[in-house]
Amino acid sequence: MVSAVRRLLDVKLQELPPWLAAWDYSPKGLLRAVHQAWRCYHNKYINMKKGGVAGISMVLAGGCVLGYICSYERLKHSRWRKYH
Amino acid sequence: MLSRLCQRALAPLALRSLAPSLSAGTLQVSRQFHTGQQCLAPITPLPEMGGKVRHGVIPEEFFEFLYPKTGVTGPYMFGTGLLLYLVSKEIYIITHELVSGIAIVSLIIYVVKKYGPTVAAFADKLNEDYFAHALACKNSAISSLEEAIESEKKEQSRVEGRKYLFEAKRNNVAMVLETNYRERLLTVYNEVKKRLDYQVALHHLKRRKEQDHMINWIEKSVLQSITPQQEKESIAKCISNLKVLSKNTQAAV
């Protein structure tokens, strides 16, 4: 599945749907994908001798964004204007 | 900086996340372990630096992706445009929490910038101590094994001397036997001599006792045989002899 993701930049626009359909959507495949993404992230930004704050700050920022998206429905009521 | 401390905490997490998805606790006996080819290549060491990240949240690949088309300021313009779009369309709603968020983020940035290097140095020192200890263990193990090899080789070379060793041992044993034999010979000689001396002394004693007894007996019988008259005659003869002798000596002087 990783080789499919790496080839995103090589995929032409019209080949996008069949390329998306070619992924492995079984639970085992999804789990494997998540696991691989976690491992790749670790190896790139955390497993090093001289790491910085970037390793965890990116995870925290992603968590913030996700939390904001999840609570957007609640926040919609405190908008300043009605029409945008 | 923080991630270095977290690395030591996240390591077991990573291990746990890497564990295969077996049911926890039950080990199925039918499974075979270690059936594949064992890969004996050494484990690649940890890299010094990892993926570069700008401003702590945006990976460098994004900037490089936009560089050919828009140059250096491209991503920043993109970011500004995105922010303005989100704010104007109220996809990002400005609330009171924004102010507190800005305060928190600025505080975090200040702390990271000020105390980052010291914490980094501390974590580096911890890592170094750990690795140095492990390396020292490995080196000591290697050196002790090398010493063992050396002593083993020396022992093996000593095998040639085993002939001389046993020769010397045999000589020692023969010497001890010889000494023992001679001691016993001496003892035997001494014992026999003592017994013979005893016999000789016994014989001498017997002879002497016989002689004494004989002398006493002869004297006693002679004295008994001397009658009184014979005694007077002998005394008179002795006196006359003495007179003659005295006359002779007076004449000589």
TrEMBL record, chain A:
Pfam families, per the entry: WRW (PF10206)
Example of a GO MF term: proton-transporting ATP synthase activity, rotational mechanism
Keywords: ATP synthesis, CF(0), Hydrogen ion transport, Ion transport, Membrane, Mitochondrion, Transmembrane, Transmembrane helix, Transport
GO BP terms in the entry: proton motive force-driven mitochondrial ATP synthesis
Domain of life: Eukaryota
Major site of localization recorded for this protein: mitochondrion
Entry-linked InterPro entries: F1F0-ATPsyn_F_prd
Coiled coil: none
Cellular component GO terms, alphabetical: mitochondrial membrane; proton-transporting ATP synthase complex
Compartments reported by the entry: Mitochondrion membrane
Keyword Ubl conjugation: no
Transmembrane segment boundaries: 52-72
Family: Belongs to the ATPase F chain family.
Protein name: ATP synthase subunit f, mitochondrial
Organism: Sphenodon punctatus
TrEMBL record, chain B:
Keywords for the protein's UniProt record, in alphabetical order: Acetylation, CF(0), Coiled coil, Hydrogen ion transport, Ion transport, Membrane, Mitochondrion, Mitochondrion inner membrane, Transit peptide, Transport
Gene3D superfamilies xrefs: 1.20.5.2210
Top-level taxon: Eukaryota
SUPFAM superfamilies: ATP synthase B chain-like
Location in or out of the cell: Mitochondrion; Mitochondrion inner membrane
GO MF, one annotated term: proton-transporting ATP synthase activity, rotational mechanism
InterPro entries found in the cross-reference section: ATP_synth_Bsub_B/MI25, ATP_synth_F0_suB
Regions annotated as coiled coil: 135-162
Any single GO BP term: proton motive force-driven mitochondrial ATP synthesis
A single Gene Ontology CC term: proton-transporting ATP synthase complex
Family: Belongs to the eukaryotic ATPase B chain family.
PANTHER family in the cross-refs: ATP SYNTHASE F(0) COMPLEX SUBUNIT B1, MITOCHONDRIAL (PTHR12733:SF3), MITOCHONDRIAL ATP SYNTHASE B CHAIN (PTHR12733)
Assembly: Component of the ATP synthase complex composed at least of ATP5F1A/subunit alpha, ATP5F1B/subunit beta, ATP5MC1/subunit c (homooctomer), MT-ATP6/subunit a, MT-ATP8/subunit 8, ATP5ME/subunit e, ATP5MF/subunit f, ATP5MG/subunit g, ATP5MK/subunit k, ATP5MJ/subunit j, ATP5F1C/subunit gamma, ATP5F1D/subunit delta, ATP5F1E/subunit epsilon, ATP5PF/subunit F6, ATP5PB/subunit b, ATP5PD/subunit d, ATP5PO/subunit OSCP.
Function: Subunit b, of the mitochondrial membrane ATP synthase complex (F(1)F(0) ATP synthase or Complex V) that produces ATP from ADP in the presence of a proton gradient across the membrane which is generated by electron transport complexes of the respiratory chain. ATP synthase complex consist of a soluble F(1) head domain - the catalytic core - and a membrane F(1) domain - the membrane proton channel. These two domains are linked by a central stalk rotating inside the F(1) region and a stationary peripheral stalk.
Protein name in UniProt: ATP synthase subunit b
Gene assigned in the entry: ATP5PB
